[in-house]
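Annotators were shown the component list below and the corresponding predicted structure, then asked to write short factual statements about the assembly.
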Amino acid sequence: MRNMKKFASLALATAMLAGVLAGCGSDGGSTNTTPADNGGSTAATAAPADNGGATTAAGEEGKVLNIYVWNEEYASRMAKHLPGYDAADVENPLKGGKIGDVEVVFHQTPSDNNAYQESLDSAYLKQADAAADDKVDIFLVEADYALKYIDSDFALALSDLGISAADVSDQYEYTQKIVTDSNGNLKGASWQAASAGLIYNREIAKEVLGTDDPAEVQKAVADWDKYVETAAKVAEKGYKMCSVNDTYRVYSNNVSGKWVQDGKIVVDANMDRWIDDSKALADSKAETTDDLWGDDWAKGKDGGVFCYFGPAWFFNFCLDADREGSVANKGGWGFVEGPQSYYWGGTWICAAAGTDNPSLVKDIILTMTTDKAVLKEIAIDESECVNSKSVLADLAGSADGNIALLGGQNPYAELAKGAEGIDLSNISAYDQACNESLQNAMKGYFTGSYKDKDEALQAFYKAVVEKHPELSY
Amino acid sequence: MNNKKSKVVQYNRWGYIFLIPFVVVYLIFQMIPLVTTVYNSFFENYRSGLTQIGPNFIGLENYKTIFTNGDLPAYTKNTLIMWVLGFVPQIIISLLLGAWFTDPSLRLKGQRFFKTVIYLPNLIMASAFSMLFFTLFAKTGPINSILVSLGVLSEPYAFMDNVWSVRGLVAFMNMIMWFGNTTILLMAGMLGIDTSLFEAAEVDGATASQIFWRITLPLLRPILIYVMITSLIGGLQMFDVPQILTNGTGDPARTSMTLIMYLNKHLFSKNMGLGGALSVFLFIITGILSLIVFKFSGNTDPDGKK
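Structure shown to annotators:
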């Protein structure tokens, strides 16, 4: 009997120990004994999904192509327009797919709060030690923080992949400047030229300005003074002009200096003007203070808002043309250049150093950003302003470039003109942190949460320093 | 005699073996992180972009920073305000419900059903709950459109741009989520009170409110203190509700930024030093509060004295 007991407890103890040793992960039993928690607490972590089907490399190139993205835009372009790519589900492109026998895996992290950059940073730090099939092969960057990666050795020079300057000569110069490092190496390419303008609601334009003709509307918003006048008229009729955050990029693209100079955060005179103009417009209720991409902001797509500021990708990606009842669905938008020329976003494809699929990466970059047939298809299907001078010139003079959601208007001539004129001398690696923080802090000023501009500016500095502790102000 | 003694020793040994899983898990997941947090708090250690800065030993510099830059008192205040706003109604409602549920003379029907229902909000993920509220109370959300169409408001009210509406919403959500839990704890306490006391009081002609104030409440004190302190500890760690509701900004003007949200901001820039110092500060406060709970719960004598 005693022996039986002894045996039983020994068995139990072994089982328990085995449980501990076998997998700390599965042992959820006694890890945490926090007191009954009446306030609620969790830790937020956003780890990119682990890549599942890693197989051993056969042949000279890897079997898994890892692509880091922040939304599904690129994945969807690839699924629809990249020849030879077999997407698992075109409606849900982030699921990946296959190119030949190579599995394409997308790793998505949203870009809010620098989260996408954080995920890239940790991928970069692990890149050297990662198994071949876990290494990042392609990552996407936005202009706001492109320099951070372009100036590092994470991004591979296109010439190392075998892409020559002649291959990309049809692209707009500004799209290449953004991804050129300090030594003059081109390290990325984009299929988009994100020159942007003002997208106005034709119905409201008719009511307020008496016309919806783009040439006439452009006159009414030709500079900031005229814009403010028009905003007052729009507000009189009970509409909103747009959100203060819509105009933000137009001002911020036309600054005279970089955000950070000698380790100090500098607020440019044009940003100051944005703060003052927006405060006045927000106080007179001509502009809203809604956050971009929020529900309140998006309601204007169904009417009530005079304009959105956006580039060509905005047409297709943001105006909900597929949804019954939206203004875009009825072809109710128009496009003009707006008060100042600017660009917004755009996505660049970069090859990651250490990729185990260099020739595939080269093919993808070349096809997606230089193949005229593919680019033209993207332009027509997605109403995108593609990064090819000749394709844009082609479209500007043809009915293919007429866009239904713009009421049949052909915006390509304006878009091409804008793309030629974009000046990128003042971008820096701190742009995203600064832009995001300034908009957020100033929202508090516009809505009256901060009692004056100075208090809001202090909050802005504080927020930037939290993200970049080495800066001062 | 000798035989018996060795038996005891042997069983002790089994006891230790059975303790191993807990100790191992505790060491790996609690003790080591705790010690490294304290260790990290003495270093300048963050990442700016792809550049790692530090770790450089800087002594108490991080503590000096968090105590002198004025953020800590502000965020502690925010956290406590939101906790109090949520806790006061929560404890009142819970006491009331607890008293009703445990009062045998009321003979409430469907008790089980209601007990389940009031606990249900706790099962929803806090983040889902705040997303829901964020949408409900958006400027163009359903609450505003109802209020405007009823004529209560002339134009939509910007709930998210107003200090007290945001704090109020956070407190309200926490209250909804946790009052069921509190009710059940208080009920357990109330059911533990000797019913003969109630009967005696009734025989002596005490009214219901007299019974509540003179018998239930005093005897419930240890449980009440336990509930309060644990809620305070939970409240200090308040994070998910305001984080999601304000999209991590703690707006308007950072008046709904809690301590843990602030900590999260530092951890986002991988600022281990400042984050560590802040965590140590929180650890000390929580530790003190837990000691208080420990002291009081040790005092609950079965005879009900104190």
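Statements collected:
1. Chain A has a mean pLDDT of 81.
2. The first strand of chain A starts at residue 64 and ends at 69.
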